[in-house]
Each structure stands twice: as structure tokens, then as C-alpha cells.
């Protein structure tokens, strides 16, 4: 069983706009409960603001508490699901990369730190004053989405840009901005992450990625170490393990087939690799998860 990948058209309610969807969270889960009850991924960017409710949000096997003031960010391809303890409320926004970047040709989504790297936490907790102010901005975007006014799409993109700017300021309040704005290293890391996502099944060593980036393996390790304090090998291993966990939990394949899918020579090697990174065998992980 493959993890379902949802697209924006499945969530449409009001007069559709290309590549964007905005809703109150309570209305969203009521209308789409058959789509979102199980683990799934998206082919678009997602931003959720919670103003009420509690529970957990699992993103790629990491669990985060849901409570008023929490904001969550997802990039395309990440697997997630919700589990609520009390009734949630807030706002949810989906949009494609093109919806934003075609309006801001000189500004890319990856310039926002929560969309820049998978290494950056996909969650932010707002202070009460920030929550109040951003809730108004989300409301403004939602009201505009429901209407059919002149220049509606441009207004929504401007609302979205304002929201992301304010969220970035809150997100980076305790971060060294000089390090964040090191564009050369940031660009290399972004390209590396994209290359790993594309090639990790077959290419499991840093040498390949350094060659693709036209830099030495030593320099690539220097970039990764300085930006996120990891090694290139760690990034590759983490991506392999994440995919392994997804397949172990969300597919009905036997573990030998999963090892084959991930292009390991045999199950024994795959099991040894998985245990060295997680502390448990693939079978133990499957049993523990359920």
C-alpha cells in the first residue's frame, strides 16, 4: 500500500483558484475527514495556525503537541497525520510553489526558514500578542478566498507574503541571522537535499553528490557541518531511514521487499544498517509503531 499523496483540487470548496486552498480548520476536517484520517503526504506547501484545540501532529515520525498558538509548516512530500484530544480551530492554507513564486519572481519560498531545509523544525509557537495579530491576517486571507472580488488572487498572495514574513520574524527571533543569510552555503545545502531526495535509493555515498555539485567531498562536508552541524553521510542516512520507516509502517510489503525497494543487497545488510541508526531492527520498529 502506497502512502496517498493528496493534491489541492481534492480540497476545493469555494470558487476555485489555481493552486491555492484556504479554510477554517474545523470546517476543513469536517469536509475532508475521509482524506486526512490516515497518514498521507501532499504535493504542495501547507501552513496551519491553531487557535483552539489540543492533540498531536506527527510529521515524518516526529510527534509535536497541538495547542493554541502552534503553527505547522509542511513541504511537498512530507508524511503526516493529526490526532486530536479536544476540538481544534484555526486556519489552514495550501498552495503550490508556483502560486507564490510567479508573483514574487525575486523571492523564493525557500528563503523562509521553515521551508528552507528539512533540518529546520516544522513547528513554531507564537506568543499571545503574535497569535492575535496573525490570526487576523489568516482571517483576512480566508475571507478574501471565499469571495470573488477583483484582483482576488493578488490580494491572497499579498496576505500570504505578509503572514510568512511575520512568521519568519517569530521563527528566527533567537537565531543568528548572519548564519541564516549565508546564501552560498544555504544554496548548496538546498541543492544537496534535493539531490538526496532524488537519488538516495541508488546513491548512498557523499562522493556522488559532491560530483553533482561540482565541488570536492571535503568542501561539501564543510558546508553541511557549518550550516546544520552534520555530515553529508548523516544526511543521506537520515533520508534512507525516513523512507524505510515510511515503507515499514505504511506499506504491507514484507521487510525483505522493503530492503529490495531501497536497493540494499539483502535484508541482513538492511536490518544491520537500520538498527545501527535507530537502535532497533525493522521488525521491532514495525511492532513498536503499532
Automatic annotation (TrEMBL):
SUPFAM superfamilies documented for this protein: Homeodomain-like, Regulatory protein AraC
Record InterPro entries: AraC-bd (IPR003313), Homeodomain-like_sf (IPR009057), HTH-like (IPR037923), HTH_AraC (IPR018060), RmlC-like_jellyroll (IPR014710)
Presence of the UniProt keyword Transcription regulation in the record: yes
Organism, as annotated: Sediminicola luteus
Domain HTH araC/xylS-type: 190-288
A Pfam family hit: AraC_binding
Protein keywords: DNA-binding, Transcription, Transcription regulation
Name of this chain's protein: Helix-turn-helix transcriptional regulator
Biological classification of the source: Bacteria, Pseudomonadati, Bacteroidota, Flavobacteriia, Flavobacteriales
Gene3D superfamilies: Homeodomain-like (1.10.10.60), Jelly Rolls (2.60.120.10)
Record flagged with keyword Transcription regulation: yes
Amino acid at each position: 500500500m502506497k502512502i496517498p499523496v493528496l493534491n489541492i483540487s481534492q480540497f476545493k470548496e469555494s470558487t476555485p483558484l489555481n493552486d491555492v486552498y484556504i479554510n477554517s480548520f474545523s470546517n476543513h476536517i469536517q469536509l475532508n475527514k475521509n482524506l486526512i484520517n490516515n497518514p498521507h503526504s501532499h504535493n504542495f506547501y501547507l501552513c496551519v495556525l491553531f487557535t483552539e484545540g489540543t492533540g498531536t501532529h506527527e510529521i515524518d515520525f516526529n510527534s509535536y503537541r497541538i495547542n493554541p498558538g502552534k503553527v505547522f509548516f509542511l513541504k511537498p512530500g512530507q508524511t503526516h497525520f493529526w490526532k486530536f484530544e479536544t476540538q481544534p480551530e484555526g486556519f489552514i492554507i495550501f498552495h503550490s510553489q508556483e502560486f507564490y513564486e510567479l508573483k514574487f519572481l525575486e523571492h523564493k519560498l525557500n528563503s523562509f526558514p521553515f521551508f528552507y531545509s528539512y533540518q529546520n523544525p516544522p513547528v513554531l509557537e507564537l506568543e499571545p500578542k503574535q497569535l492575535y495579530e496573525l490570526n487576523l491576517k489568516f482571517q483576512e486571507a480566508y475571507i478574501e478566498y471565499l469571495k470573488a472580488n477583483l484582483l482576488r488572487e493578488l490580494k491572497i498572495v499579498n496576505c500570504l507574503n505578509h503572514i510568512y514574513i511575520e512568521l519568519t520574524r517569530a521563527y528566527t527571533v533567537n537565531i543568528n541571522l548572519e548564519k541564516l543569510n549565508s546564501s552560498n552555503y544555504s544554496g548548496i545545502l538546498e541543492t544537496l537535499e534535493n539531490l538526496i531526495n532524488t537519488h538516495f535509493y541508488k546513491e548512498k555515498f557523499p562522493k556522488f553528490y559532491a560530483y553533482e555539485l561540482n565541488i570536492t567531498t571535503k568542501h561539501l562536508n564543510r558546508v553541511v557541518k557549518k550550516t546544520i552541524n552534520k555530515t553529508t553521510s548523516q544526511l543521506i542516512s537520515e533520508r534512507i531511514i525516513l523512507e524505510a520507516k515510511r515503507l515499514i509502517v505504511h506499506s504491507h510489503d514484507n521487510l525483505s521487499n522493503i530492503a529490495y525497494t531501497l536497493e540494499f543487497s539483502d535484508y541482513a545488510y538492511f536490518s544491520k544498517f537500520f538498527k545501527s541508526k535507530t537502535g532497533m531492527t525493522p521488525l521491532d520498529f514495525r511492532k513498536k509503531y503499532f
